[in-house]
């Protein structure tokens, strides 16, 4: 039962070519495609959509390079380090397979990719599904067989069967100076309410126990509609999703005032009492240079209001340290704010220049050694807060969702834990007979810095 690393990046996920896709392999003579999916969960959903379309056309899905007739690499271009990771993944696929199609956020810079890897077969940008399919058709023509091409109603999933990401919109209307996502993915474009609900219902009917709602700006869902039925459509969507009987977890929620109306749904149990909110910083001058809303004090008031309405709410956020111009006083303000906010789950990364970002031109860039020192201090404080909050849960009973089971025990998550970015609840007694997707009650008897341990009490 491996523990989550404390510095797990919130903006980068592990490459996904090792999922068990045996149930969606094609017949012996049908062409097969491999997929490496990098970056955030939004990119993972794009990968799933591409694979679902390919599977419907008769392609098999290979879990390794050697069994694939071609490999699609879905790239991340959020930070320079993510771009380097994407180039490495493309190079690895070229070495192991030789026939590689590139898509995703970094695909918005085709010359950058072909300059490093001129042998790639094609390069397409983010959520350009038709262009990816055209490239696959050119490289590996389909060979459909109606007797073999069976596709599950939920489509091809790269996550475990018991949870799934539910993407409700594309793009973003914010103009944060450090971010180029709007340039890559465009302005906000919300999916129709009925389409999101149809997908969610199919997922729950297929056995999904947890829906992770994702977008670039979840709070703004539907505000791009000229004829929207209500002022804030995210409230209607959350209410309807909460009636499906699965866990509903909200990610990337900007702290607009109407978020207060989401919290009572959490207190009532329709939506998990969990908010993932990208605060980024706390000092008003730093936020202004970021082109972010500079209202840290009002944010603390909002946090207090959320906790009054739903005392069990879990708050997760991410922050940037070492942003251009960040002084020691500004950084100390962030540490003081964190002390007061007492967030449950915190991610942090050091500022990096990104090609095309307006923040690159800002003066007074912070030296790397200072960024590292501030990151260390920030994570030390965040870790102490997490440890104290988890220690308070010892002796309590929590509902947990089983993610994995081995000979040592069951790896589970509670309502306070999103997959891959938060902690785990490890069950080392009474786990016999459990399977991924089971919901159980656990009595917590030990706490660490990021994880909990306990015994099953409903065996």
Automatic annotation (TrEMBL):
One of its GO terms (cellular component) is cytosol. The keyword Iron-sulfur applies. Its EC number is 2.8.4.4. Keywords: 4Fe-4S, Cytoplasm, Iron, Iron-sulfur, Metal-binding, Ribonucleoprotein, Ribosomal protein, S-adenosyl-L-methionine, Transferase. SMART domains: Elp3. This is Ribosomal protein uS12 methylthiotransferase RimO. It is an enzyme of class 2 (transferase). GO terms for molecular function: 4 iron, 4 sulfur cluster binding; aspartic acid methylthiotransferase activity; metal ion binding; protein methylthiotransferase activity. [4Fe-4S] cluster 1 binds at residues 40, 76, 105. CDD domains: Radical_SAM. SUPFAM superfamilies: Radical SAM enzymes. It comes from the Bacteria. Belongs to the methylthiotransferase family. RimO subfamily. Catalyzes the methylthiolation of an aspartic acid residue of ribosomal protein uS12. One of its GO terms (biological process) is tRNA modification. Binds 2 [4Fe-4S] clusters. One cluster is coordinated with 3 cysteines and an exchangeable S-adenosyl-L-methionine. It comes from Roseivivax marinus. Residues 31-141 form the MTTase N-terminal domain. Its cofactor is [4Fe-4S] cluster. Residues 158-388 form the Radical SAM core domain. [4Fe-4S] cluster 2 binds at residues 172, 176, 179. It is found in: Cytoplasm. Signal peptide: none annotated.
